Amino acid sequence: MAIRPILILPDARLRLISDPVAGVDRETRTLMEDMLETMYDAPGIGLAAIQVGVAKRVIVVDTSKKDEEKKPLGLINPEIVWSGGEPSVYEEGCLSIPDYYEEVERPGQVRVRYLDGEGRTQEIEADGILATCLQHEIDHLNGVLFIDHISKLKRDRVVKKFQKMAKREQQEG
Ligand code: GNR
Ligand code: NI
């Protein structure tokens, strides 16, 4: 198990469309273990493989609370097969856009089909924060960030701020 570095905006790799996993093998399972360790360390409630620089359609989530038992979930090639219910609004954040939070409206319920770590097809139905988190992670697999769901004014502002910070860090070496 290993903690892997998380890519930060404006890293261009965050805009890649990730490739489907052809076969679930040891490498895929190691990637999922590393992603879970990286997510718990951050800490976060979800992580997509591209956030650690791997353009494969793999996500991990765990929306259990601090005082609850952990509920790690690894999803390979996840697909939203149904979404609906009352739209729900959550204040979202992203480990690739540290310390920035905005409200995003998304469908309140989703049904997601995916392969588990043993290559078996599974489906999960989710609502609440898990439904939001799954949509946020699946967006990452398509190069979409939560800031793409907010106003252009706010998005341009946060992108500029992170571009400036990256430039400054480059100059300071
Ligand atoms: O840790 C995270 N919290 C969060 C809160 C509200 C909506 C989505 C998320 S996902 C985020 C971790 C992350 O960046 N996943 O890609
Ligand atoms: Ni994110």
What characteristics describe this protein?
single chain; 173 residues; alpha+beta; Peptide Deformylase; 5-stranded antiparallel β-sheet; two-stranded antiparallel ribbon; 3 helices; binds ligand GNR; binds nickel (II) ion
Break the fold down into its secondary structure elements and pairings.
Elements: H1 26-41, E1 46-48, E2 58-61, E3 73-84, E4 88-94, E5 97-106, E6 109-115, E7 121-127, H2 128-141, H3 152-172
Antiparallel strand pairs: 1-2, 2-3, 3-6, 4-5, 6-7
Bound molecules: ligand GNR and nickel (II) ion.
Ligand GNR binds at residues 44-48, 51, 90, 92-96, 132-133, 136-137, 140.
CATH architecture: Alpha-Beta Complex
Order of helices and strands: HEEEEEEEHH
Distance between the termini: 29 Å
Bound compounds, each kind once, are: ligand GNR, nickel (II) ion
Structural class: alpha+beta
- What is the radius of gyration computed over CA atoms, rounded to a whole number of angstroms? 16 Å
User: Average pLDDT across residues?
Assistant: 98
The amount of beta strand, in percent, is: 25-35%
Number of strands: 7
How many domains is the backbone divided into? 1
* Total of helices: 3
**Biggest sheet: strands side by side, in what order?**
1-2-3-6-7
Q: Care to describe what's here?
A:
- It is a single chain.
- This protein has 173 residues and is of the alpha+beta class.
- It has a single domain (12-172), classed as Peptide Deformylase.
- It is 29% helix and 29% strand.
- It has helices spanning 26-41, 128-141, 152-172, and strands at residues 46-48, 58-61, 73-84, 88-94, 97-106, 109-115, 121-127.
- A 5-stranded antiparallel sheet has the order 1-2-3-6-7. A two-stranded antiparallel ribbon has the order 4-5.
- A hairpin with a 2-residue loop joins strand 4 and strand 5 (97-106).
- The longest helix has 21 residues, at 152-172.
- It is globular.
- Ligand GNR binds at residues 44-48, 51, 90, 92-96, 132-133, 136-137, 140.
